[in-house]
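Objective 1.3, modelling of assemblies. Example input:
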Amino acid sequence: MLEVRPEIAAMPGYHSPQVDVPIRLNTNESPFPPPQAFVNEFVDALASISWNRYPNRTADGLRAALSAHHEVPAESVFVANGSNEVLQTLLLTFAGPGRRVVVFEPGYQMHVQISKVVGSDVIVIDRNDDFTLDRDVVRSKLTEVDPHVVFVSSPNNPTGQCDDEELLDVILESTSGLLVVDEAYAEFGTWSAIDRALSSDRIVVSRTFSKTWSLAALRLGYLIGSPTVVEHLWTAVLPYHLDASKQLAGEIALNYTDEMNDRVARIISERDRVQTALSALGVRVSPSSANFILFSTGLDADVVWQRLLDHGVLVRNCSSWPRLAGWLRLTIGSEDENNAFLRGLESALETE
Ligand code: PMP
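Predicted structure (C-alpha cells):
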C-alpha cells in the first residue's frame, strides 16, 4: 500500500518559480559569474579525475583548502551538496523523529521544511514587528522547550538583518542542544560565529558557495564546528556524497578569493544605493546586511509583484510567508538590473 508520511503529504514543498524573464532578482544568487580564469582552470582539472573510481570520500583536498582559507583545522570542516545538505545532515544527526527544533520567524523556510522531513517537531519563536528578537521571550521560550537544535541565520533570510551576536550567548545559556548558525550570507554581514564554533561542541556554522562565490550551479556548502560534531556528520551522510568534480571546483574557487571579495564589495555598495533609493520612494525597508532587501510598499504585494514582472523584473513574493503579509524580497543585481528594478517599481507605484 502506498502511504506517504503525513508530514510530507501536508507540506507545500519549495516554491520559488523559475520564470523565464530578462531580470531575475528572486533567489539571492550573485549577478556576476565567477572569473573566467576559474572556469578555465576547472575545465583543465577535470582531465585529471579518475572517472572509474569513487571520489575521495572525505573530500580531503577541498577540506584542506577550506581549512587554509578560514585558518581552522581540517577536522573541523564538513562538506556537502549545498548548505541545504549540510543542514539536512545536521538534522539527521542531532534532531530526527520526535526531537525538537526551534526556529525564529520570519526566517529561512528550509530550516522548517528539512526539520519536518526528518520527522522533528518545529517550534517557532516570533520576531518583533521590526524583525528583531526579544531576548526575554527567547530565553523563556527556549527554557520551556529545551530544543535539540536551534537555528539562527546571520544575516537572516528573508529580513536581511543580523541579530546581535549576544543572542548566541542567550541561546546557549537557555538550552543544552546544538546551535546552528546559518551563515549563507556572512560575507555581506557584520560578524561570524566561526571562532565560537571552534571552541564549543554546541555551536556550528554553515556556509555556501552559492552566493558570494557566484557558484549556485555547483551546489556546494560546508560546515565549521568541533571535530566531535564533524565526526558524527560523517557517520550520517551517504558515502561518496560529494562528487570528484565538485571537490575540485571548490578547491580551485578558493584560489580566487580576492575576486570574490571584490564582487562582495560591489554588491554591498549597490545594496546601499538601492536601499537609499527605496526609502526615497517612501517604501518601507528592512535594513539589510545581506545581498537582498526585504521591502513593503503599502500596496497589495501580489499586485506589485505582477507589475514588476510585467516590467521584466522577477522578485520574490514573500507575502504568503509567516508574518510577512505585504513584503517582497529583492536580490541585489548588477547596476543595470537594479536600475531596471527601481524604474519598474516607481512605475508600479505610480499606476495606483
Ligand atoms: N541558508 C540560507 C539562509 C539561504 O538563504 C540559503 C539559500 N537560499 C541556503 C541556506 C541554501 O544554500 P545552498 O545553495 O548552499 O543550499
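The chain has 13 helices and twelve strands.
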